Amino acid sequence: MPEPPKQPPDLRGTVVAGLWPGAPVPRPSAPFSPVAALSLAALPTRNKAAGLPGPCRRPIAAAVSVSAPLAVVLLSGGLDSTTVAAIARERGFRILALTIDYNQRHRIELDAAARVAAVYAERHIVLPLDLSGFGGSALTDAIDVPKSGVAPGIPVTYVPARNTIFLSVALGWAEAAGARDLFIGVNALDYSGYPDCRPEFVQAFETMANLATKAGVEGDRFAVNTPLAAMTKADIVREGARLGVDFGLTWSCYDPVDGRPCGSCDSCRLRAKGFAEAGVPDPAL
Ligand SMILES: [Zn+2]
């Protein structure tokens, strides 16, 4: 009598256990896929080959294929960069989140970045890059943060060349990791007038990135994605809401008082304007 055909073993719950010791293991609801299991098991090796310093420390968030392309997302922990992370995920990218610890005065945002990365990112690097030695900004130096409203001109909260520095660092990680897309939450409508938030700057940086890198000159081109560029703050809130962003994870204030948003710096004002115009309550208040 012939034996009945063998069924593949039910390995649900063990598929991703090999990613890193002690990792929480989400039980997949889909039937076991040997292909997916092989891809997941190979991820630490791929990370190593890509120059990443080891296996992922966080579970891969649901609904992103392990064969999806990587993108480096500059993540400050604010409303804008968090919404950008959600957009990058919706576009099908696996996210490498990069937070620069530039010794900013409002260090609460680093905690916010960690909370957001836990939701969206496959890996999160917080890179210490102390810009306070340069000074020259109310965010890194002993200069008062303006609280009398958004004024014309470039305010003292401008950090010299910050987005050029941040994107350069992101470009380095992207090239090493095999990511060709960078995401940054710059916005040139409801913003503080920073020159390195304008589309001209972003286009120039993208050109530079493709001149400056091995990947770029070999034709494997980089793209700098700025999905918020033409959005108002209210648009950003609506987009985040559409994507299910938990705004309570985010932090925007430049100059918190007793661990709470001050309510009167430019960043607090722009955030409040965005939530008000979108008709969405701000859970961070
Ligand atoms: Zn504030």
UniProtKB/TrEMBL annotation:
Record text on cofactor binding: Binds 1 zinc ion per subunit.
Catalytic activity: 7-carboxy-7-carbaguanine + NH4(+) + 2 ATP = 7-cyano-7-carbaguanine + 2 AMP + 2 diphosphate + 2 H(+)
Keywords linked to the UniProt accession: ATP-binding, Ligase, Metal-binding, Nucleotide-binding, Queuosine biosynthesis, Zinc
Residues annotated as binding ATP: L75, S76, G77, G78, L79, D80, S81, T82, T83, V84, A85
Example GO BP: tRNA queuosine(34) biosynthetic process
One term of GO molecular function: ligase activity, forming carbon-nitrogen bonds
Annotated positions binding Zn(2+): C253, C262, C265, C268
SUPFAM superfamilies in the record: Adenine nucleotide alpha hydrolases-like
InterPro entries (alphabetical): QueC (IPR018317), Rossmann-like_a/b/a_fold (IPR014729)
Required cofactor names: Zn(2+)
Function: Catalyzes the ATP-dependent conversion of 7-carboxy-7-deazaguanine (CDG) to 7-cyano-7-deazaguanine (preQ(0)).
Sequence similarity: Belongs to the QueC family.
Protein name, per record: 7-cyano-7-deazaguanine synthase
Gene that specifies this protein: queC
